[in-house]
Amino acid sequence: MAAAASKDRRHHRVLIVGGGSAGITVAAQLLRARPGLDVAILEPASVHAYQSGWILAGAGLLPYAQTHRPEAAVIPAGAVWIQDRAATFEPEARRVITAAGDTLSYEVLVVATGLKLDWSRIKGLPEALGHHGVVSNYSHPHVAATWKAIRAFRGGTALFTHPATPIKCGGAPQKVMYLADDIFQATSGVGVNTKVIFCSAQAQLYPVEAYNATVERVVERRGIETRLFHNLVEVRAEEKVAVFEVLAEGCEPRREAMAYDLLHVVPPMAAPDVIAASPLAIAGPGGWVEVDRHTCQHTRHADVFALGDVSSLPTAKSLAAVRGQAPVLVANLLAHLDGRPLAARYDGYTACPLITSFHDVVMAEFDYTLQPVSSFLVDPTKERWSMFLVETRVFPWVYWHRVLKGGLHESRFLKPFGPLVRALGLARKGS
């Protein structure tokens, strides 16, 4: 069981702010590497969510019960859980002030708060969500209603959006769309009477060229219309109109209004306000914690590290990225405590299991070079049934029983399954 936080003990050698995937993974790996290390986790939530499972659960591919557990059940043995949230960061004094007014001092700080969903940056969206055909799989309270609306859709124009900001799980806006399109096509009379449009503020469908070529073939095969450089800025829900700012390079910005019958919105995202307003934040949009892209150490405060969605690490924000970053951060944090040089290097590895249908996944893996890499010893740019099995059957178990336990330290954490998946991959599409 996790140790209880003591009111008279407010200093910790390592203070981790955030008890999500990144924070728990780092805590578990630290305690595996150095049993007895004084580690505290500052996290207000009482429930821990496997967010990667929300799409799977909503689409009926994973039992909902497998997407969450009590936070107390995932706190590593030996770690102190402080059930509160950070209100102020004072890195010069090496302390964090909590919402309850407690002062927590530390020798080393790890920031792993995740990001915030900035619904209010889209005019009319907060009040529209869940009404007038406006849905989002990114809103946990609305996941079930989102998929109910998709299954109840009876034709018309279905818009799916991708914002201009970095987002967690960059492939999720398309995953929802492809699964929804499968549902439309399987429903009598709906597929033929539906126009699916993907409106993205980005310059292409996927940031890695090899995977972009794959998804371009997917949308062409499905007859999905794509509108790039289209950033959703307003929802006029009662009129069922979405307003986009069109920012194509070399062109004057303009507004374009599009009527819809179903609108799936992915909100803009940024660092939590407490981070963006702190001395830890990088200058410029987003407010991310400013860290070295290879060591995960803060660029101005040597006793601060960060990883995951809240960090400035210039790679896609995903659970797989955390799995690449955590062992590097842990090794460098321990080196810092010992007064040794920081030798571990993060190469930007990340991955996105891009679901393209109810039986196929593109396991998109890449690093800072923006070149495809593969942990499974197969061409990662192809749609595969074997990867669908890994995403829906293997990864949920691995998350709860290996990732959060501090296991699978390799940055290419999928490698242990390579031989199995290579064998399974022979089953479909010439894998």
From TrEMBL:
The keyword DNA damage does not apply. GO terms for molecular function: oxidoreductase activity. It comes from Cyanobium gracile UHCC 0139. PANTHER family: SULFIDE:QUINONE OXIDOREDUCTASE (PTHR10632), SULFIDE:QUINONE OXIDOREDUCTASE, MITOCHONDRIAL (PTHR10632:SF2). Residues 13-125 form the FAD/NAD(P)-binding domain. This is FAD/NAD(P)-binding oxidoreductase. Keywords: Oxidoreductase. Signal peptide: none annotated. It comes from the Bacteria. Its EC number is 1.-.-.-. The keyword Oxidoreductase applies. Pfam families: Pyr_redox_2.
